[in-house]
Amino acid sequence: MDLHSHVLPGIDDGADSFDDSVEIARAAERDGISVLAATPHVRTDYPTRSAIMCLLVEDVRERLRTEGVGVDVRPGGEVALDMIPELGLDVLRHFCLAGNPRCLLVETPYCGWPLWIGVTFFDLRLGGMTPVLAHPERNSLIQEDPERLRPLVDGGTLVQLTASSLDGRAGRRAAQTAHRLLDRELAHLVASDAHRPTVRKVGMAAALDALDDVDLACWLGRDLPAAIAHERRLPDRPARRSRRRLLRSGRI
């Protein structure tokens, strides 16, 4: 399952057209993905409205049915941190991840680390929503000190890594930080953050294969995302095992 993509056309910096949406979904299907969360940016430069997001999800679903692409596209949003207090809980629930009203994907700032992030996430938790923090391995301060995430994770935040960070496509520092977060048990799931058919491709299976740990790869790419998508109890993290190649059995 892939719970972070910009598959909806013309709404942010992701797919430009329905043809792009179809190609992103086809790439996901070839990669073994069964569920793809549409998570357009929700921030000042892309002030996505939930009603438009939902309409586009239905349009993309219909186009995929017509094209014979067997991927279940779910609603969602990638909400900027500073938009959370402005939008409020009632609006934010429309952007919940894969339609799960108890999880919200939040975009990590690319630079800086706001002192009020802990308070904002605490307020989300009080409102019944678990923050899922997207791609913190790209943040320069997290790269310097991954333990900055510890208080958030201890407080219940889930951390989502980008597939291209795991296998080095996003650069050396992002890759090093992603693996440090995994080693410190500060990361919980992997997603593609796919924007275009040829830019930031889905690449989930290859990224998980790079872990050389079957149980951890299945937990990050299938088990925990599936629990979010199906509103089930989150599975426990598997013990880290000896490194071996990922056996690609079943769909993620």
Give a written overview of the molecule:
The structure is a single chain. This protein has 252 residues and is an alpha/beta fold. The protein has one domain: Metal-dependent hydrolases (TIM Barrel). The protein is built from ten helices and ten strands. The protein has helices spanning 18-30, 50-67, 83-92, 117-126, 140-144, 150-154, 163-166, 172-183, 204-209, 214-229; strands at 2-5, 35-38, 41-43, 46-47, 72-74, 78-80, 103-107, 130-134, 158-162, 189-191. A seven-stranded mixed β-sheet has the order 4-3-6-7-8-9-10. Strands 1-2-5 form a three-stranded parallel β-sheet. β1, α1 (18-30) and β2 (35-38) form a beta-alpha-beta unit. α1 packs across α2. The N and C termini lie close together (5 Å).
What secondary-structure arrangement, pairings included, does this model have?
Blueprint lengths: L1 E4 L12 H13 L4 E4 L2 E3 L2 E2 L2 H18 L4 E3 L3 E3 L2 H10 L10 E5 L9 H10 L3 E5 L5 H5 L5 H5 L3 E5 H4 L5 H12 L5 E3 L12 H6 L4 H16 L23
Parallel strand pairs: 1-2, 2-5, 3-6, 6-7, 7-8, 8-9, 9-10
Antiparallel strand pairs: 3-4
Helix pairs in contact: 1-2
